[in-house]
User: Fold these one by one.
Assistant:
Number 1:
Amino acid sequence: MADIETLGILEEIEALVSDKLQVVSYKWLSRSFLVTSNVAKRLLHEFVEKHGGGLEVVYTLSGWLKNDPPVYHIRLVSEPKLAEAKQEFDGHCSVQVYSVQACIPKDPAALWNAEFVQAEELFKQPFAVDNCLRDNRFCGISNSFVKRIAEGAPVSNVASQPKTTGLLGPSKSISAPQTIAVQQPQERKVQQSSPKVSLQSPSVVTDVKDESNGTRAHDQASKPPADKGKAPPLPANKKKGQNDKSSGTEGSLANMWGRASVKSKPSCAPVDVVSAEAQICAREAVEGASSDEDGQDANFKRASNGDGGRKRRVVFDFSDEEEEFEDAVNLASPDPPKGKSCIVSKQSPKPLVPDKINLNSDQQKQDKPKVKEEKSSNRESNLSPREDSSVLSKGKNNGISSSDKIAGGVPEIDVNKKDKVTDAAPNSPKRRKVMKTRIDERGREVTEVVWEGEAETKKADSNETKKSENSIVTNAANRAPPAKKSPAVGNTAPSNVTGKAGSKKAGNSKDPKQGNIMSFFKRV
Amino acid sequence: MEAMEIDAEKHLQRKQSLYESLDEKFRIEKETYRGQQYSQIYFARLHMMRTLIYSLIPNWKPHLPVCTVLGLEEGKECIIVGTLYKHMKLKPCILDEYSKERSVAPLVKPHNFMHSDDSLVLEDESGRVKLGGTMLLPSVYVTGTVVGLHGKETSAGEFLVQDILDADLPPQIELPLKSTVLSIALALTREDKYVVFVSGLSVGSSTSNPLQFQLLVDHITGHLGDEKEQGIAAQIVHVVIAGNSVAVPRGLLNGQNLASKDQSRLSEPIKELDILLTQIAAGLPLDIMPGPDDPANFSLPQQPLHRCLFPGSSAYNSFRSCTNPHSFELENIRFLGTSGQNVDDLEKYSEAKDKLEFMERTLRWRHLAPTAPNTLGCYPFTDRDPFLIESCPHVYFVGNQDKYETRLIKGSEGQVVRLICIPKFCETGVAVVVSSVSS
């Protein structure tokens, strides 16, 4: 490095420390200016010699202590205490500049913050990118035997965070929700979709990010269950098959993000999807109902990954149309086989589904995590497992109808499922959906389907205590008015529901015809 | 000159070593749960150990007959072999929770459940017999150990113990270089390779200082220090993290729905750990074991932490998620260790002067966790007991202890074992480095 460069860097350090009051540690320096750690330390040393006055310097002392048995000690000391700290060491100890800052923070751990933020940034880069964090290139010891497997290169890695890519991407990686059950099909799909994904991923990624890292993490965490879950994979597989045929497009990834691409496909898919979903939903419902979160997670994941994509795609396209409604429902549950849709439905009473559909692809992705959360939460809070399953089934059958049903209540769902499927189709044409997207209080993007002519669609958010789901439910409820689905159930349900439903109901107060959870209990 | 220094490539190469994992027996993948309970694992344990002890009896007291518990005759001296059961008054019992009179604060858990009234019982398939006499100290033994006892039955129906036979240290594979002239010469030229053990990182807890762990990581990977220091670091060939690596904020998990910001808070510690592990894994092989507080299963043997928890680090071929207990062989040196649950449980039900003594006892009883499944959660194996130690390790470590301790113990057949207690890093900031050259 030329001296000029050195000078330039030194000046920058000065600016950072004095003006921005940042802690400049040697690690941070090495990563920012792409120099090795040894060089960075040397630079800091020079800097301290030239501009050191007025700035706090922290040194590292490393060496063997004098006590017995000999202990190898690494210590950070500030300049004033350097001399006496050196005394504790037995013989030679290496003194190096660790960091330079305007003032030493009270909590020593704050010295580490700037460095960690930088590490986090590097960590979040796309999975396939090999950066200085990942290959440890600036350390003093090289090790050629360490290899990093950047899998899933084709998919999702484009423009997505490592996490998301993990999710979506590497077809092999279990983490990707999609991949779990549907690994092979997923892979195929994924690859196909990759181009799409990449196109959309930027937007999606951002959306996803906005959604909540938490959810993503949640997803990721859930993935493991998905991976392990044998059950979910089965349905997923089935779903996938269906998805495959239905979507015939790339994997869920594409679906997830590629609304645009989805559009083309969904048209054909919906029908297949619906049927497939119905079956899957049924299956899922069973599994979902009985299984724990894992199942849901798996489903969710799947949905989110591929299904979401696939189904979503389908759904999206449809969302605009009546028929899509059904698909939309499925979307909620996304994932290659109905699982997703089912799952989705489970979580949040169907309303989610419609929301999902309507939402952008981004939403889908986000929905998934939400859905999952909601699902789980719903399950616990709102619905009994039965409901979930029923919801699922509903979801399967018809996007729309299920959503309606969900709002109504569990019992209705069961009954309605079947009906709904059929109903959904016919129903959709009747109503005109208008989708509105907004951010709810939790920061989630909620797409609500507001039926034209409905008194209100948005109330969901206000009502629910639980989550946007509730709102969805209400939405669904709103939608349902024309509901052919199970008018009887719905009617009874509402009354019951109001009695017991509580929060859920709150939202639905408007929608007496919609079934509600209580109706489920009643019937049972 | 300065430019040259700056441009100098790192010329230090990290040492490589041969590693072989021996965790197969701790995996539960092939087991099926059909609702069985623990009788089978106890039977497997008794069977294996009894065969072993029977083979040792001729060397110990060949003149005495061996009989089963049911075959005891009054006054006749004999040897019986069976599983010990310690009857403890203070041992928490689930039925206490349902008793009519419940004290207001039943949650006070004594650190140690021992009582002067504890008594031992020996049990084999045929029956049980109460043990008496002063040779066998209830404070030393715990339920689940298999021993041979020499004594006789008294008129009261007790078995008066006169001598005890432990299985003692298992046979040990000799280290390749023993004390011969040639080996000493080789030893001098042999490279010294280091294995770093650390446990109790507790990333995400309020007590852990991330700066400390970062310093450790920097040192291990070769960022810190000058040439000499980095030279030392280049000799580190392996890192083992022995449990309790992450502190999940359990306060959030109260059965309520998680808000999205809570969800990110829940996963923050694991993400932070993943970033730090990536830094290590990018430089050298790393083993991570689950611990009592980690997101892994509760019962022993704990299965490896799932690689989905570590999306960043699991991409490396140097990252290995291991079971707890963990056994591996590095450069022909056999390591065996746990994350601390076995010794901590022993501490609750028996006493010894230090943790190393507990460790020594487990080796002499040839069983890693004798209190499992009695008081330590364990999987109900049907045909084997994976905690039996068949081959004596050269290094035996236990993680998550209060302080660093180490000792060398010797066996009757020339076995030499280095016992190590790894302290909790979040509290002490101490990691243990083991050198491969015996000393």
Number 2:
Amino acid sequence: MSFLVDSVIMFTSQVLFFGFGWLFFMRQLFKDYEVRQYVVQVVFSVTFAFSCTMFELIIFEILGALSSSSRYFHWKLNLYVILLVLIFVVPFYIGYFVVSNIRLLQRQRLLFACMVWFTFMYFFWKLGDPFPILSPKHGILSIEQLISRVGVIGVTLMALLSGFGAVNCPYTYMSYFLRNVTDGDILALERRLLQTMDMIVSKKKRIAMTRRQMYQRGEDQNKQTGFWGMIKSVTSTQSGSENLSLIQQEVDALEELSRQLFLETVDLQSTKERIEYSKTFQGKYFNFLGYFFSIYCVWKIFMVKFWSQHISFILVGIIIVTSIRGLLITLTKFFYAISSSKSSNVIVLVLAQIMGMYFVSSVLLMRMSMPLEYRSIVTEVLGELQFNFYHRWFDVIFLVSALSSILFLYLAHKQAPEKHMAL
Amino acid sequence: MASLDRVKVLVLGDSGVGKSSLVHLLCQNQVLGNPSWTVGCSVDVRIHDYKEGTPEEKTFYIELWDVGGSVGSASSLKSTRAVFYNSVNGIILVHDLTNKKSSQNLYRWSLEALNRDSSPTGVIVSNGDYDREQFAENPVPLLLIGTKFDQIPESKRSEVLTRTAFLSEDFIAEEINLDCTNPRYLAAGTSNAVKLSRFFDKVIEKRYFTRDPSPVRLSFIYCFEDEINFPKLNKCRKPSSLF
């Protein structure tokens, strides 16, 4: 009886999460595009729903809600479904949509999609070999095999993103790092851009006019007969076309310059907006948070092992909520930046894959943050994985990512003022 | 050679609809072989004979400015794009016939361009409703071009054409539906070529041969949720969709 009640509760919450994922997809991600393939939206919402259900189960575990047998059952069910989605459904659809975009392979879409999926499975399986994640007494298709590999990918992703985020967040929000950009700088750059465009236009006018004259002369030439007529036509068109190719080269160089100037102007505009934002109340609040988090991140970089074992579930809850929110916001920004109407389906599916793997590995890593008495369910459900390996792997990748982000941002920061000095 | 007069025509539309292919077709009379993503703005020039065949025939340069991007871009991108909207004499709005959203976004594109191009002699402030009468007083001639016509199956053609007819009524503009990979649609003598030629003539006429010597131009300031230029205007609701 209680099992039925528990199942109803779980099912309702899953439907709620599904609805939230659906709305997020429609209102945020795809608000500028047309949804023609509903399967993409369904797959995204399903991944989101089952990922959130996992977190919900952890909370229930800590709170002691629902009976423990039904919790165990739902854990297993949820895990199987999410593994099914992450390993079979999403990669297959990614391959299918990528193949659909390539004109040549349109005919045999299904066949090529299956081939892509088999390649993915091969590399996915090979991934497990170099890592000491399993004890050898498990079978081939056991849940531990799949979870361990998903865990490795997810943990790597998490560590990369956390390392970069730990460095980028203070850099973005702290006003110490914001370069000083005046309106005059932007106007000067815009003027240069328009001058370049004018030069391109005048050269293109010459090309168009020369072509038109050649075409008209060509028509006259067709009426000219005789030996000298032929020679004249050959020499004049020869010099005309050489001239044209020279101007065309100049135009190509100028167009490249105009693109660079455009991107620089966009960069300056966004810096100016960030400066204005930092002067507002919200901006000042985030600036303070930036200082706070930078200290916290530095502490975390250097004292990674020192993680207390008895953190209450409130902190775990906060971590869950902020990581979901942070991930969704980052995914949205990333999606806006790189998608177009052709690739939007593929990108959404890739994001769904990343999101699923991210959440699965969050569960793996969260085990360390939970007090001993709650770890048992996770250990029981996920089997005998070598959890310590994941923690060490996370620390290593986090450190590498953070240090390389520092280096990258340092170089970018140094290079920018020099570029503007040269104006 | 460079002493011919010129007019500037913007080519606007969502990314991926085929603006670069269209501009290439209009200016080089060839199909673009390797379309790639436009960064910033790419310009091309077409030589047009105004009033061809009459004694008042005159040759003009038509500059086609193909501005890349999407309506949902970051505001830094939008402010940089605005640099290209100065002193525009005509606008070609391009949409993808297989993608309804690209047609809906044309309203926002036209407002983005017309909003920036404000010479302050007459200002009309609306509260966000798309009113055909206001578009009728718009001094900048518009042309509507729908691309990827060949990708629409025969059964859906009439439905799509009805939809674009509504669109062209809203914008008070002529419409042309074509496929940018096939120059046959714009061959000399076709109705499309005639419409195109008429549009360019209209642009040139507005620019050089208006009866009014002083450039009194009415411009429109529509308010958007995210672009409030004047503090007195209130927030407006989104435009109602016809589809």
